[in-house]
Design a protein that fits this description.
By secondary structure, this protein is an alpha/beta fold. It contains 3 helices and 4 strands.
Length: 97
Amino acid sequence: MTSGTDNSPEKAQVPKALVTGATGFIGSHLAERLVSRGWEVVCPVRDRASLRHLSGLNVRVTALDTLERDLAELQPDYVFHVAGATRGLDMNAYRCL
């Protein structure tokens, strides 16, 4: 008698990840590594004009303003927060970020 749960490798659940900062150097390499390992990856971005590091990757790019809805739909297993401030109007503005 079986429990009704199929734990076979063919039915294994694909891990899901949300990667912030994926348009940057570290985030794009992390997204690339996750995709190469078969993960489903969602990358929220502020500016769709800065996707050069994600070109050719099988990731889902979403706008930050739809992130809440996308999180409810995706229900990621993991969140990798690698976004960070890279510039400010001046040094004081940068430090406040």
